[in-house]
Amino acid sequence: MKEYTVYIDNSRAYIRVVIYKRVQQMRDRMTKDGKDHDKQCMGMFSPSNYYEDESGVRFYQDYIGMMYLHEDRLGSAVVAHECLHAAMSCERHLNRFTMKYDPDEINYDEERLCYLLSNIIKQVYTCIYDNEHAMAGEVK
Q: Would the pLDDT of 117 be above 90?
């Protein structure tokens, strides 16, 4: 098991990415950490705890959450899925629950989410490749 810190889009906000050799090792750790998952779970993003300010508004700290991955399945489907959870958690962190998505057209909030998602995917795959969890062309 290797654990990494991935910073979000040149900010202080970050996620922790934990990569296990095998899927069962990841699931065992998630169970130990008290994370609810099913037997088919291929990855997970667990948002960090939040706190409330004096007005009752929830704010996250700079730590956005933990991403659980494993070398058995580092393909785009699993990684992008977990990165979207991370991006949505980051949106809640950065924008304090004020996102508004237009049903008819792409707006600023949607575009910002897409850029944020792209950044997180790039950072996570850079982490995967730079630390030799997979070589280019080897991801499953």
A: yes
Mean pLDDT of 40-68: 80
Residue 118 has φ and ψ, to the nearest 5°, of -60, -45
Which residue type occupies 64? I
Instruction: Parse the chain into domains and list their residue ranges.
Output: 2-130
d(CA 129, CA 104): 38
DSSP labels, 49-109: PEEE-TTS-EEE-SEEEEEEEETT--SHHHHHHHHHHHHHHHHHHHHTT-----SSS--HH
Angle at 114 between CA 138 and CA 49, to 5 degrees: 90
Alpha-carbon span 95 to 89, nearest angstrom: 10
Give yes or no for residue 76 having a pLDDT over 80: yes
Cα separations (Å) of 85 from 53, 66, 105, 117? 24, 10, 22, 9
Q: What percent of the chain has pLDDT over 70?
A: 86
